[in-house]
Prior knowledge:
The chain is mainly beta. 8% of the residues lie in helices and 53% in strands. It has one helix and nine strands, in the order ββββββαβββ. The protein has a seven-stranded antiparallel beta sheet with strand order 2-1-7-8-9-6-3, with helices on one face.
Amino acid sequence: MNQNYIKINDIVIKQPVSFEPNWATTYTADSNRSQSGVGYFQPLFTAESYNAEFDNLSKEEASQILQLIIPTPTRPNFRLTYYSWYYGQWRTDTFYVGQGSMSVKTIKDNFEELKSITCNFIGINPINPVVS
């Protein structure tokens, strides 16, 4: 079996040093807790996300990743190939990155490097959609 790699828009990128799964569930407006503390919650959907960190990046690697993940008006999201723990398999789904950060290693001419890029890949489609 061939090794799978995290890809953005079918491009194998420098692999992240960490790729931590998260999820967030959105509930109906009337979901709440009673005064006795009992919860009454009705889930609507759950979105899958991944905290990613890339480290020791050359300027070319950093530029490639940033150009693929930073949204533009004509390209607000991207296809991410990743291992989904929810589905238990490698998948390609649509994601976006709304915020990220970078840590600079050096800006010496011709030796520019970033220590790291960190960002949160957030799934566009829910992992458990409600069937109407």
